[in-house]
Amino acid sequence: MYIVSTSRTGEFAKNMMTSSTMKGVGVERKVFPDGERYFRILEDLSGKEVAVVGNTNNDSEILELLFLLDAVREDNPSKLIAVIPYFGYARQHMIYKKGEAISAKVLISSISEYADEIVTVDIHDTSSYRYSKRKCRDFHASGSIADYFREKNIDLVMAPDDGAFFRAKEVADILGCKSGFMNKKRIDATTVEYNMDHIDASGMKVLLVDDIISTGGTILRSMEIIKNSGASAVFVSATHGLFINNVDRKIASECVELAVSDTIKSGYSKINVSRKLSYFITGD
Ligand code: R5P
User: Fold this and answer.
1) Residues 78-92 pLDDT 10s
2) Please, are residues 168 and 141 in contact by the beta-carbon 8 Å criterion?
3) pLDDT, mean of residues 220-227
4) Measured in angstroms, how far is the CA atom of residue 78 from the centroid of ligand 1?
5) For residue range 195-209, what is the model confidence (pLDDT) as tens digits?
6) Which residue has the CA at smallest separation from atom 5 of ligand 1?
7) For atom 10 of ligand 1, which residue has the closest CA?
8) Active-site positions?
């Protein structure tokens, strides 16, 4: 299988190649004087299986991903897979207030115009898949997260809410420990309180797991509740570490260890999902 990558996701794609039979394809890139960009695939991909890799949290990268998909499609590959390590805009997968765009729909339907298959990594909500014209598959980082924390003797894996519980449970089941999630209690129309009154975590080593850390608000609030519950240690993990305003430093300073995956490169990308993802795609 051949692999074409956006400029920003190049390192992730390189890591996918080092541990698999995938081969990289060169891309000529230039910018015209008026700012328009140009992409050209430097290999004949007709009749070949090709994966185009790119994240969708950066608008310029989204455009590059679509252009690259088109360039490969024009070459008549036998199979074209769009691989989206971090599917940005996935939290905008439904209308919350009248007049909103369903941004995740726009992205996934556009990508599916070109790709035969779409592979995501812990997409925020797979309900976005209903907008794709092609088959979609989600790779879960839970195995890689569990591998990373295996030696830490975790007693309990917690999710910050019930929607994320399945992720915590997957990790806990692999580690052979307990799992749970924060309770949401609505106080009034604008106030929601979180607690873990239903779980006894006293003296436990707790691993808090989420799909995305963006501003860090969710994780910081959850960490505080876990600490107040009497846990002896709190570890934090997520698949995608966006870390807005360098919140990674604050989180890391308040827990025993912070570790996220390599879908978005940061100083805390200690968990390699690129290797397992390449097996997931090639079936090797
Ligand atoms: C929300 O449903 C997601 O799963 C994450 O919990 C959320 O996006 C994290 O955002 P933040 O770090 O800004 O609280």
Assistant:
1) 999 999 999 999 999
2) no
3) 96
4) 38
5) 998 999 999 999 999
6) 212
7) 214
8) 184
